[in-house]
Amino acid sequence: MKQRRTLIRKEGQSNIAFRGIQKKKTKYLKDLYITLLDLKWRWATLILFLGFFLSYFIFSIVYYLLSYIHGDFDHIGDPKFEPCIKNLESYWDALLFSIETQSTIGYGTIYPHAECGGTVPAVFVQISVGFLLETILLGFIFVKIARPKHRRHTLVFSRNACLCKEDNQMSLQVRVGDMRNTHLIETHVYGVLVKRYVSQEKHVYPLFQHELEFEAHGMGDRVFLIWPMVLRHKITPDSVLYTLTPEDLLYDKFELIIFLEGTIESTGEMVQARTSYTSKEILWGHRFARVEEYDEKNDKWCMDFVKFNNVVPSKTPRCSAKQFDESPKTDEGAEKEREKASLLQGASKVLTVSEDTLLDYSTASETEAERDSE
User: Which pLDDT belongs to residue 374?
Assistant: First the structure.
């Protein structure tokens, strides 16, 4: 299957690469906090463990050198000698003591001697550095986990978009749903159509953005996303899709990007969910099947997500919205003429029936009068 050549992937991630940026790494380091948040999880985990390990390792060397310079290793087992760090007899003991000090575990088997110069300052510096590392490393890991962008994974868009006639007007439709019971508030939706554009000066924009306004039922661009909803873009003369025909979906190169933005109810943070549709992912003459069902047993409305991507055929003219808006005038007049003719024909039938009934009645009356006279 041919890979989708799109700007935005179906799941919402960007499909754009940048190159030729001078001093890119320097610019990223100046914005270190956001750089750490944007790192992939494998690199974030590596930085977390590597940061703590380097701290443990550096201070273990400091403690080992303090003991070595003080001569502790030459007086191992001497009860009269006071070492800088009690029971530190090898480098591995120094590493264990470093981990215990920074993590404030304090098993008690290895402990420093306060009268040994350099021991107290080294412990103080390590604990201070340890608090700083925990704040930075654990802090950015927590923020990375709690970022509101992950809320978009429970917001789902339909696999395809549909183009059909609704309310006697051509419209483009997309379905969106929320899996959670805690819903977004102040939710808005809008779309962008990206396609090639040539200006009057013959300047070519291969990726030109056109605005597409979507509405959710009668709420405008505000989406009350308690149940799956069908978003509609009315194809009016102001729409960039006004001249779109079914044949254009096969040959035209454009991409439809849908953005859904709202506030997470439980945290108050903003979140954006997005997806994209290529021209070949728009189904002409179809609309979305119903997913709303009332469960009489549990006395609740049930939204069947199994049918979320299901579509059904819809009677839609195989022409552009412009052609559709221009053609109904003659068709409507002809339809009215047919209605008038039908009414006149019906009236004539009624009149004929009435005349026949009167004729039969008069004939019957004359016959009955003759019988009475006899």
Answer: 40
